[in-house]
Design brief:
It is a single chain. With 357 residues, the protein is α+β, with helices and mostly antiparallel strands. 13% of the residues lie in helices and 27% in strands. The longest helix is centred in the last third of the chain and has 14 residues, at 244-257. The protein is globular and about 75 Å long.
């Protein structure tokens, strides 16, 4: 079995290269867009898409390396993006418009201890997204059934993760497992990053009460009239580093200050533009000369899912051309289980401009 640890933004606390950022946007016509980056700078993983039909059966991995945990069969078909193995869905949407996504969450979560006697209800944390999408059409359904499984880590020393779950209605929650107990937070701001916990991240926003859109000033200071050097100075003091708290603040202001778009496709475009600000330059993830590999970016791919129209869009570190999977064109009753690479060719698509002679 391939090593799971570096695949899904799960790693030991010392790893410096993890920085996933998620936002939720809403269109004027009622469309909800769930979007995020996936960041991992230790290695270029085999990133894949998956199409899972209704009736597909999956069984959870266990800490002992076996695949003898809870077995579940898809009530709903879904499309997901992940890495290395088709069971490892990082972000996906099912045919009801429910989206689920996994994010790195070091130090602040704590799962239940693995109990061999309860392996038939034990679910690996890296398969929670698949389990949610296969079984549920709403957040309330998930909340009513979450205690029917015991979520555990399959890797000794691995970080815990937390999850964002979003409905086509626009409702979103963040699920964290604290002291072994699943805890749900309504995510009305529509942002998730990593540690610390969700409540702390929201409290920290109070440190930026002075920020606003637009341009600051002018103001009189004694005999001097102070003027802005450029537009956008209402956000002076916005943190620009790639730490989890700073990204949470930046994403909160950018996504909530964005201009509402008329429909899903336009809002998807807006989501990609916002998340461009969270594309982690590879050289910032490590001390100079200590980079373990060479990649175009520490942000391996970015996804935006239109939950109303059921279309999944993505681009990658190799090719910024946006590609889409139209779920409306898939018959989940008959489509075969399948997966494939996000990039057929790991090269940027460059289109020459035709100059008239």
């Amino acid at each position: 079995m391939k090593k799971i640890l570096p695949i899904l933004c799960i790693a030991t606390v010392s790893t410096p290269a993890l920085a996933c950022t998620g936002i939720t946007l809403h269109a004027r016509d009622g469309a909800t867009i769930s979007a995020r980056t996936i960041d991992w700078a230790e290695a270029a993983t085999d990133n894949i898409y998956m199409v899972i039909p209704r009736g597909h059966t999956e069984q959870s991995l266990l800490p002992d390396g076996s695949q003898n945990g809870i077995q579940f069969t898809s009530r709903y078909g879904f499309v997901g993006l992940g890495a290395e193995r088709a069971e490892f869905v990082i972000d996906g949407t099912n045919e009801t418009g429910l989206n689920a996504a996994l994010f790195y969450f070091p130090d602040y979560g704590e799962y239940q201890k693995y109990d061999e006697a309860m392996r038939d209800i034990t679910l690996s944390d890296i398969q929670v997204v698949s389990w949610i999408l296969a079984n549920f059409s709403s957040i309330d359904e998930l909340k009513n059934n979450i205690n029917n499984v015991r979520i555990v880590s399959t890797e000794a020393g691995a970080s815990t993760v937390h999850w964002r779950i979003t409905e086509a209605s626009g409702r979103a929650v963040v699920m964290e497992i604290i002291n072994g107990t699943p805890t749900f937070h309504e995510d009305e701001i529509g942002v998730i990053t990593n540690a610390p916990n969700f409540t702390w991240q929201h409290t920290n926003l109070n440190n930026y009460v002075n920020l606003k859109s637009g341009t600051a000033g002018p103001m009189q200071l004694g005999p001097d009239t102070l003027q802005s050097f450029s537009g956008g100075t209402g956000l002076l003091g916005l943190p620009g580093d790639f730490s989890s708290p700073s990204r949470f603040v930046r994403a909160s202001f950018f996504s909530n200050m964005t201009i509402e778009q008329p429909d899903g496709p336009n809002t998807v475009n807006q989501a990609f533009h916002i998340l461009n600000n969270f594309d982690v330059p590879f050289g910032t993830a490590f001390a100079k000369g200590k980079e373990p590999v060479k990649m175009p970016s520490a942000t391996q791919w970015t996804i935006a899912s239109d939950l109303k129209n059921k279309v999944v869009y993505y681009h990658t570190m190799y090719n910024r051309t946006i590609r889409k999977i139209d779920m409306g064109a898939i018959d989940f009753a008959t489509v075969p289980f399948q997966y494939g690479p996000l990039d057929e060719s790991k090269t940027e698509m460059i289109i020459p401009v035709q100059i008239a002679q």
